Structure formats: structure tokens, C-alpha cells
Amino acid sequence: MKLMSMALAALALAGGTAFAQDFPNKPVTIIVPYSGGGSTDLVGRQLAHELQQIWGQPVIAENRTGAGSMIGTAHVAQSAPDGYTLLVNTPAVATAPAVQKDLPFDPKADITPIGMVATSPYMAVAGAAVQSTNFKDFITEAKDRRMFFATAGVGTSSHFTEELLIQQAGIEADIVHFSSGGDAQVNLMGGHADVYISNTASVMPYVNNGQVKALVVLGSERYDLLPDVEASAEAGVAGIDVNSWVGLFGPGGMDPALVDKINADLHTALASESFQKVLSDNFVLAGKDNATEFKAQVEAEMDLWKALAEERNIVAE
Fold it and tell me: Are 264 and 210 contained in the same domain?
């Protein structure tokens, strides 16, 4: 019986490997759970283009928006685990489940992390009402004058990183939720908020044209692509060790051999000159993780944001 079980396991492994080697033999869809034109959409469409060249099959980027990216994510979670329906998403995969209790899927069991596509630190940018020119002075100013922090909505990564910054810096602030990151940035530039936190791809265009000022990157070290912007740890604010990222996911239950193949092809795509230019133009770096490392990071962030939501009483509206 033991020999038979071993033989069956070997056959199953061989079958999974053969399927992975044959993948894909028909069109692949990559779901982008955000509107067209944003930074995640840009990265997702470039990834689709590069993978199409590698695979020799059509790879279609399809926008499925709504519910803080969870409509598109749920669509992938409920798809067949054959690799033909994939997802690009941000840390919303980890933040949304912390506040949305009625999701139609299990965030850990029904989504397979495949690999990180792009990564950068979170950056806090300030509007014209903020007088400080460095982060240490900002903390002092925020203790003297209650600040308004703009978010892209309850449970978004901007919301959670702002809650984490407020907690670790020991300040009090009012958090104002807007309908999207774009709406938050418009209100920041219009003087209706003091601070907004997002990824570098989203905020750097506004920094470069002088509409907002770079305040700090969150983390222990300065970011190589923005060496003139100080890190939060330099001002004595520790305990903020999270980055923004765009990741590639599939449905739960995918064969490990298939996951590893797609991860390898992802890294081939990321190494292309055209993809490198898209990433550098948006002040982000290519991901380097294998599937196991990326899965561990995603699940650790799920646990982190769930604990923060409970501690700071963050619930979906």
C-alpha cells in the first residue's frame, strides 16, 4: 500500500509538471481590479504585454472594479485554478479583508500569491498648509496643530499606513476618507487635507510638478530611487516596515509546478528593457520574490492589518 501511494503521488507530480510545461495553450486573462489609467493598471497592462511575448498566446488585461478591488479579486478567487485567470493587485489583498467581514471568499485559501511584480516604499506627501520641510519638524507641527490625513477609502492601504504612522509617531489626527486615491490627492492639492500616503508611482508626478511636497518615505532606510527624501526611522519613528507593491495572484488550489512556472516567466518579463523603463519611470523596482516568499509576505501583512484594525477599531463603512 505504501508503494502504491508513493507511485500515485509520483504520477500526480508528473502530471502537474507536464501541465505546467504545456501552459498556456490558450488565451490568459489578467484581472486588474482598478480603473484604467492608474499605476496598477499601467503595470498590469505592461505585464500582460510582456507575458504575451513570452507565452505566444493572447494575454488580456481586463478591468473589473469595485468594493476596494474586491470584486475583481473575488472573480479570480472563484475561477478555475488552471492559471488562465490571474490577478494583479496591491496590498488591498491584505488590507480589505481586515475590515470587510463578508467577503465571498477566504483571502488565504482562495487566492494563490504567485510573485511580486513591483515594489516601492509608501510616501507621505503634504499640502501647502503644512509648514514643515522635514519629517521631524512635521511631527512637532502635528502635535501643535491637529492634521487632516486624506485616504483613498476605509480599509485601503493609504488608510492603514496613515493609521500606522499616526500610532508610531504618537500624534493625533483626523482621518478623512475620499472615494479614491485620485480624489484624495485632488483634495490635498485643494487645501482640504494636510497629508496623504500612497505609493511612489501615484504621488511622484504631483511632487515633481510642485503641487505637493515629499514629506517622508515610510521605513528604516532611504529609498535608492529617491535618495533626497528622508526615511521615517531617521526622525525616530520606528516600527513601520511595510512597502507598497503590485503582485500577481491566481485562484486558490493552483498546482505548485504551475505557480513556479508563472513566477519564473514573471521574472523573465520583469527583466525586459521595456518593463524596466516603465518601472523606473514610476519610481518603483521590480519584484524578486519566489512564490513561497511572496505568499509569506502577503499572509504576514494580512495578520498585521487585521491586528491594527482591531486595535484602532477600523471597520468598513
Answer: no
Residue 149 has pLDDT above 70, yes or no: yes
Q: How far apart are CA 86 and CA 62, in angstroms?
A: 10
User: Which amino acid is located at 251 in the chain?
Assistant: P
- The whole domain housing 174 covers 121-235
Provide the strand spans (E) within the chain. 28-32, 59-63, 85-89, 111-126, 147-151, 173-177, 195-199, 213-217, 243-251, 285-286
Coil, helix or strand at residue 130: coil
The predicted-structure confidence for 23-58, as pLDDT tens digits, reads as follows 999 999 999 999 998 889 999 999 999 999 999 999
The whole-angstrom separation of Cα 218 and Cα 238 is 9
Which of 216, 235, 254 is where one domain is finished? 235
Question: Is residue 268 situated within a structural domain?
Answer: yes
Residues 222 and 269 in one domain: no
Q: Which three cell numbers stand for residue 265?
A: 516567466
Residue 251 has pLDDT above 90, yes or no: yes
How many Cα neighbours within 13 Å face the side chain of 21?
6
Q: Decide: 289 and 299 in contact? Cβ < 8 Å.
A: no
Do 99 and 138 belong to one domain?
Answer: no
Query: Is 2 a domain residue?
Result: no
